[in-house]
């Protein structure tokens, strides 16, 4: 039987990062995806697209918790619904079908909050993928795990390094390499600034 | 740029400087435009990785999603509720038999066993023997996992991690000596440490206690071993 978590436990795991965060992410997705997809697909969206929206919503939820934007005024489930709905509205807006959706809103709408949602555009995704792909695989793995707040020990164990210090050196070496790639690529810096602002 | 400056910026951006050191460093940034530019560049690099994480998370969620859906489609392949009830009845009968045959107090090595989580996060959507086996494994349907993982290994004998999961499957099925054979075939550095620990449990559970003890001592004396504490505990 899969383990179950309270909202408080999930929030702690998301903030802790690393493996704990991934476990929380998987739990939230498995727990709510069918429900949220059913909620979204009552209106216009096909199942595939709704699942994609829920995946983006879970990522936004992780960022919201990690960056302190989620203030705990509602349950995580309500927060996830609110994000999913906003992401969905954004897609409908692009398709020009937002009005039809708004007219069909009914009393079963679950949320009244409106969290800000951020999701990478296609050119941002490909820009980020391209520059990360220029690193050696090992460097990419170490840096991404470090950035996801895996501990040095976890990284050493997962990637087969003999101890924490080796990982620390590797991380610094790879970070310098990536920094130089960013230095030489004004396009990627612009893309990062656009995202931050 | 000097290594020292790079590392100082890393410590600053990661929030590792004391308040005093942070204030002093910020004063340096104000006074030195070239340092300010280095800090900005390094901050952008961190931000780039944060964006990279979103892509990683998305990949992982897609993998979870395809596993969930494959799971939903696999179940009917293995028959109806009646078949499961019959299988459960047989399993209970076998468990009772094994329980009765076991030594009083049980085997402390077997008591330590809990199946290793599925960390393989397979990303392709093709429902091959490996994926089907791992889905069954994650759902604790070890008899099904055993048949699919064995079949997969017949065709791909060099896949160390599959031996590792098949070993876990045998442990869950109470077939420790078969588990020993599987764990011995794991060589990849990524899986070696957990494989050591599970091999020790399998040896102990299959009454090869001397070798189990030797292995546990080796794990316990290795400061970099992920299972050092568990091994120490079991040796007590």
Strand percentage of chain A lies at under 5%
Largest interface: A-B, 46 and 34 residues
Overall pLDDT level of chain B: 81
The CATH homologous superfamily of the largest domain in chain A corresponds to: RNA polymerase sigma factor, region 2, helix turn helix motif
Query: What letter string, H or E per element, gives the SSE order of chain A?
Result: HHHHHHHHHH
Number of domains of chain B: 2
Could you say what the CATH topology of the largest domain in chain B is called? Serine Threonine Protein Phosphatase 5, Tetratricopeptide repeat
Q: Estimate nothing, just give the exact number of structural domains of chain A.
A: 2
What best-fitting shape of chain B do the alpha-carbon axes yield? elongated
Under CATH, the topology of the largest domain in chain A can be stated as Rna Polymerase Sigma Factor, Chain: A
Overview features:
heterodimer, A: 197 residues, mainly alpha, Rna Polymerase Sigma Factor, Chain: A, Arc Repressor Mutant, subunit A, 2 domains, 10 helices, globular, B: 236 residues, Serine Threonine Protein Phosphatase 5, Tetratricopeptide repeat, 12 helices, 74% helix, elongated
Describe this structure in words.
Chain A contains ten helices and no strands. Chain A is an all-alpha fold. Chain A folds into two domains: 98 residues, Rna Polymerase Sigma Factor, Chain: A (Orthogonal Bundle), CATH 1.10.1740; 75 residues, Arc Repressor Mutant, subunit A (Orthogonal Bundle), CATH 1.10.10. In chain A, helix 2 packs across helix 3, helix 2 crosses helix 4 and helix 3 packs across helix 4. Chain B is an all-alpha fold and 236 residues long. Chain B folds into two domains: 73 residues; 132 residues, Tetratricopeptide repeat domain (Serine Threonine Protein Phosphatase 5, Tetratricopeptide repeat, Alpha Horseshoe), CATH 1.25.40.10. In chain B, 74% of the residues lie in helices and 0% in strands. Chain B has twelve helices and no strands. In chain B, helix 10 packs antiparallel against helix 11 and helix 11 packs across helix 12. The longest helix of chain B is centred in the N-terminal third of the chain and has 42 residues. Chain B is elongated and about 75 Å long. About 5% of the residues of chain B have low confidence. At the A-B interface, helix 2, helix 3, helix 6, helix 7 and helix 8 of A face helix 1, helix 3 and helix 10 of B.
């Amino acid at each position: 039987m899969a383990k179950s978590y309270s909202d408080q436990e999930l929030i702690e795991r998301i903030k802790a990062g690393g493996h704990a965060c991934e476990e929380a992410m998987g739990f939230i997705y498995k727990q709510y995806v069918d429900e949220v997809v059913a909620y979204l697909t009552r209106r216009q969206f096909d199942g595939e697209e709704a699942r994609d929206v829920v995946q983006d919503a879970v990522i936004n939820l992780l960022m919201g918790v990690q960056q302190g934007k989620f203030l705990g005024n509602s349950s995580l489930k309500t927060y996830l619904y609110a994000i999913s709905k906003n992401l969905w509205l954004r897609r409908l807006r692009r398709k020009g079908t937002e009005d039809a959706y708004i007219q069909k809103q009914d009393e079963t709408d679950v949320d009244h909050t409106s969290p800000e949602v951020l999701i990478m555009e296609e050119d941002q995704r490909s820009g980020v993928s391209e520059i990360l792909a220029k690193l050696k695989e090992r460097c990419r793995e170490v840096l991404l795990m470090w950035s996801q707040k895996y501990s040095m020990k976890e990284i050493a164990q997962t990637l087969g390094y003999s101890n924490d210090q080796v990982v620390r050196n590797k991380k610094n070496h790879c970070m310098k390499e990536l920094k130089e790639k960013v230095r030489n690529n004004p396009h990627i810096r612009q893309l990062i600034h656009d995202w931050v602002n | 740029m000097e290594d020292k400056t790079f590392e100082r910026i890393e410590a600053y951006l990661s929030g590792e400087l004391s308040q005093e050191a942070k204030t002093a460093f910020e004063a340096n940034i104000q006074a030195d435009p070239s340092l300010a530019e280095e800090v900005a560049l390094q901050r952008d690099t961190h931000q780039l990785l944060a964006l990279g994480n979103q892509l990683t998370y998305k990949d992982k969620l897609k993998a979870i999603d395809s596993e969930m859906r494959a799971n939903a489609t696999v179940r009917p392949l293995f028959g109806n509720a009646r078949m499961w009830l019959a299988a459960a009845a047989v399993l209970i009968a076998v468990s009772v038999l094994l329980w009765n045959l076991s030594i009083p107090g049980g085997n402390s090595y077997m008591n330590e066993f809990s199946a290793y989580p599925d960390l393989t996060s397979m990303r392709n959507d093709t429902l091959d023997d490996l994926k089907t086996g791992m889905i069954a494994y994650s759902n604790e349907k070890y008899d099904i996992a055993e048949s699919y993982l064995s079949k997969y290994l017949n065709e791909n004998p060099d896949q160390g991690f599959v031996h590792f999961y098949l070993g876990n499957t045998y442990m869950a099925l109470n077939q420790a000596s078969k588990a020993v054979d599987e764990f011995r075939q794991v060589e990849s550095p990524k899986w070696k440490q957990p494989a050591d620990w599970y091999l020790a449990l399998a040896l102990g559970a299959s009454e090869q206690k001397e070798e189990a003890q030797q292995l546990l001592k080796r794990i316990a004396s290795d400061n970099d071993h992920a299972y050092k504490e568990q091994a120490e505990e079991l040796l007590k």
